[in-house]
Design goal:
Blueprint: H1 4-32, H2 38-43, H3 49-59, H4 65-77, H5 91-126, H6 131-144, H7 148-162, H8 178-184, H9 186-211, H10 215-222, H11 227-238, H12 240-256, H13 259-264, H14 270-279, H15 283-311, H16 313-316
Helix pairs in contact: 1-15, 5-6, 5-9, 5-12, 6-9, 7-9, 9-11, 9-12, 10-11, 12-15, 14-15
Length: about 325
């Protein structure tokens, strides 16, 4: 008999792969509906009809959509993301460098936001309904209520223009020291932390307060254990599953949802790379970026589900 944990994990992975296949169909179909013509964008408005026809044939743009989709999907399965139509560069090579930059930005934003959100969530739960809870909730809700670009431009004006503490353009390149890179990305990291902090903090707070109503927590309190120790030793371990879920969702956002932040701060990541090639109507690049974003988002959600399954004591020790 298959263990329930193994069965559930296999089901989550299979569902994720099916979802990724469905997303690939949506991405390919959506890019076909984009207005404009990449051949026209490459050759310019003065190009003749014959030159446009020859370039479309050379790029395979005249093949049926089903054939182009299969060729594209088959290439992805073999690690070939194709060639950029506008410059002839290998997409995987260019995308790999940009993806590494995006992961670098997301890593430092997560390294700050995740522990900070958990700590603030624990403090808010410890003082629920009192002024520390109201202060933390009010500040975090105020930051999440503003769009990323608004927070970005406000931070840029205050910290880069008015007080000149940080650079307004977050450019990093090979050869920079780690300290120089961290100094360059401080502003976008600050914006990303402010954007994702409230959601993780409030979910941590809600999960802790929910567990605090359990009988074993009340028993621990009756034994005279301090409230802080009750939260840390008894409530937090049993609230891990929902906290992990929300953390993974926000980590996925940090990788997938950085497009606006990267454009605001001219950061050389995947978001900026995607926007540049959307403007050029370079469909293979747009499709490749979409698939990478989708794979990261779905993968992190699967990981969150698996951790939640493993953290469930009723599944680890079935009757």
């Amino acid at each position: 008999m298959v263990h329930p944990i193994i069965r559930l994990v296999v089901q989550r992975i299979a569902l994720g792969l099916l979802l990724l296949l469905a997303v690939s169909i949506l991405i390919f179909g959506g890019t076909q509906l984009l207005p404009g013509d990449v051949a026209q964008a490459i050759l310019g408005q003065s190009a003749t009809q014959q030159a446009l026809a020859n370039l479309r044939e050379q790029m395979g743009l005249n093949d049926p959509a089903l054939v182009r989709y299969w060729n594209w999907l088959w290439g992805i399965l073999h690690g070939d993301l194709g060639t950029a139509l506008t410059n002839g560069h290998d997409i995987a090579t260019d995308l790999g460098k940009r993806f590494a930059n995006t992961l670098f930005l997301a890593f430092w934003a997560a390294a700050i936001s995740v522990p900070l959100a958990i700590i603030l969530g624990l403090v808010a739960a410890r003082y629920a309904g009192r002024w520390p809870d109201k202060l933390i909730s009010g500040i975090t809700l105020a930051t999440i209520s503003l769009p990323e670009f608004v927070v970005g431009y406000i931070a840029m004006y205050l910290l880069a223009v008015k007080f000149r503490l940080l650079p307004s353009v977050s450019m990093i390149f090979d050869g920079m020291t780690l300290g120089a890179k961290l100094h360059a990305i401080m502003l976008p990291v600050l914006v990303l932390v402010l954007v994702v902090l409230a959601h993780m903090m409030r979910m941590t707070r809600a999960a802790i307060l929910n567990v605090m109503q359990s009988a074993y927590v009340e028993t621990a309190e009756l034994k005279g254990i301090s409230p802080g120790r009750v939260i840390w030793r008894h409530a937090l371990p049993n609230a891990i599953a929902p906290v992990v879920n929300v953390v993974m969702l926000n980590l996925a956002y940090l990788v997938v949802g950085v497009v606006v932040v990267e454009v605001v701060f001219v950061y050389p990541g995947m978001g900026q790379y995607l926007v540049d090639h959307v403007a050029k109507r370079d469909l293979p690049v747009v499709q490749a970026c979409g698939m990478v974003f989708a794979a990261v988002y779905i993968g992190l959600n699967i990981l969150a589900d698996v951790i939640s399954i493993l953290a469930n004591p009723r599944l680890r020790h079935p009757k």
